[in-house]
Specification:
The complex is a heterodimer of chains A (67) and B (170). With 67 residues, chain A is mostly beta strands. Chain A has no helices and 4 strands. Chain A has a single domain, classed as Roll (Nuclear Transport Factor 2, Chain: A). In chain A, a hairpin with a 2-residue loop joins strand 1 and strand 2. The C terminus of chain B is likely disordered. The chains are: A mainly beta (67), B alpha+beta (170).
């Protein structure tokens, strides 16, 4: 079982108007032991300074930095 | 606690494994949801578009999203979608609140402006605060960055829609 107690640490962002895109990599600690590494691309749609929509593409990395 | 309805489908590999070794998957679902302080109310398999349905409750949407991510990360499912359910009382409260929601307070309007401080905008500040909230597991900080009708999609995994009802209780 996985847990989201540890979350993305490495992030880069760009924005245009009220839309931000982020590239995030991070590690999730599994409750059963071990870790799960992930690479994520995320779109944040903002409304009045808050996040109104978050669209994410999450890839679990098991072998190396890209797979 | 808020209730959630999840629709899921297994991968072909998962079905093949279950055919070889039949297993009651309710126990696994129960373990996931109880790890965040929630409760499994029901687990059904079904004909149709989705292989099965879960009805469960969790302390808040962040906890439910954590469960959805953990389950999806396991790779046993080909799809997993979750809908936040509102009670009739909550819907009635929303209807009453909608009356006063047509006009934004001046403070909210001012927040909408993108204020540049160096290369960092206010929107970027908010997203950073949101991600830091996840890192620190600070639910209050996370929720303060979201609109009440946040829509969160993780493609290939799940979609959470509807009001973030935990805001109302915080």
């Amino acid at each position: 079982m996985d847990s989201l107690r540890r979350i993305p640490v490495d992030r880069r962002m760009v924005e245009q108007g009220d839309v931000l895109m982020a590239e995030i990599t991070g590690t999730v600690r599994r409750a059963a032991g071990g870790e799960m590494r992930m690479s994520m691309a995320e779109v944040f749609v903002m409304r009045h300074g808050r996040i109104a929509e978050r669209r994410a593409w999450v890839i679990v990395l098991t072998e190396n930095d890209y797979r | 606690m808020p209730l959630y309805l999840s629709r899921f489908s297994y991968t072909h590999e998962t079905w093949a494994t279950l055919i070889r070794n039949p297993e009651d998957r309710r126990k696994a679902a129960q373990t996931y949801i109880e790890s965040v302080g929630g409760k499994l109310h029901g687990f059904w398999y079904a004909f149709g578009t989705h292989d099965g349905y879960n009805l469960w409750e969790a302390p808040d949407n962040v906890s439910m999203a954590a469960v959805a991510l953990a389950i999806s990360g396991g790779g046993a499912l080909s799809s997993f979608e979750t809908t936040v359910l509102l009670t009739v009382d909550e819907a009635m409260a929303a209807l009453r609140k909608a009356k006063s929601a047509t006009e934004l307070p001046a403070r909210s309007v001012s927040r909408a402006r993108t204020i540049r401080r160096g290369n960092m905008s206010q929107n970027m500040d908010t997203v950073n605060a949101y991600l830091d909230g996840f890192r620190k597991n600070d639910h209050e900080q996370i929720l303060s960055c979201l609109t009440d009708d946040i829509k969160w999609t993780v493609f290939g995994a799940f979609q959470l829609t509807g009001a973030w009802s935990s805001r109302a209780t915080s």
